């Protein structure tokens, strides 16, 4: 009989409860300022894909569109976009639940890793197989130039802006491929360029930059030209870093110098200040030629030379060096024996939702059972947390509270009524009995949110008092400023601490400061054998002795 284990399942666009068209989580690929990327396995076709969930950056109004999906362009060296959808990050009761959304994309997985990781491995390993060849560099230069010029000539014209080594991926199409192909991913930072910076063109003609007189009429022309220069500079830097400390041919060095001259010419034009003199400037008595932005147009001739040299290098070295050591081995999805361990790992890893828990056959990887509860669907903390403050771009922490603030007057009135009822009749039928347990998924949801809540100490007591009727939830205020919350097998010791914020005086000659202090709770997760857990038990015993 085959065994069944637990796994993380992403329904994604299908929202299918049968488990026939979603994805199983394999491992985490990386995270950045825009979001988190995970490796997932498709249930329908058994292929590996890259799943990216972005940080919510703006209100998703009627004219909102995902940058990752809107700016995606089909190109042989851009990873194919399989699907793109928006998901909520706030609770349904929140007034901005329909506005603040994140984007989840499923794209093609490049099995060679990033160019940065490849370079680090070659630099640290001294072996012939890890030595970068000139054929490798020619292929890298060709693929990078093709993608940059492709986005520049697309409609609308776009700027790459972040084509660094971590956004350049290696991919081996087949088991017999020794030399990888280079893909440019993460198109979320593309910038739309003004079409007026280009010369009027005929059909199927590549875009060419206008002269300086024409560019002066375009607003922010310097920023657009600098964006073009930065895109070409990323290509130059990527090739220079990988080819460092390696002897190269004269043709390769010549192409690199030409690319550097184009980049420097565009940068000089951006730094040039127009004073009305169209001929030259006199600097220290010697004339200086005004930089011409049309040096960008030389990049098309450079690309032809690079392709010609790359084909010649491939024909001269047909055997080449085998770089298949960088190819990723096919991986199975991550499985857990215990459901509690799965929730604990997902909480520690900051698993980007929404996901569900399923039971998987360990032999066939077929889904046998699925839970209806979604986890991580309304948790922006893992993707938008900076330091101790909840931060979603453009919105303050007060506007994005996780739970509605309780009505203190109503809560106090209910407490007074319950106290008077208990004093009148201790055996009243409306007294809550501790024979009910809080469901496990709600306990896990509380565990994921408690360490990041930022509330006043009094409001915390009101928030968690409604859970005291459950047997597996215990809330005690052992003394003034100290609160103990026990959820299942997890303990939290809460103490008040002073948040001192210094505000400098507006006067220049005085050193007076205005110190504003607010009482905020400080959370400690108490393990079963930790010092804080012993402190928690001591506080509980002291309370029992006093009572």
UniProtKB/TrEMBL annotation:
Residues 409-440, 503-522 are annotated as: Disordered. InterPro entries: Kinase-like_dom_sf. Residues 414-437 have a biased composition (Acidic residues). This is Protein kinase domain-containing protein. It comes from Cladophialophora chaetospira. The lineage of its organism: Eukaryota, Fungi, Dikarya, Ascomycota, Pezizomycotina.
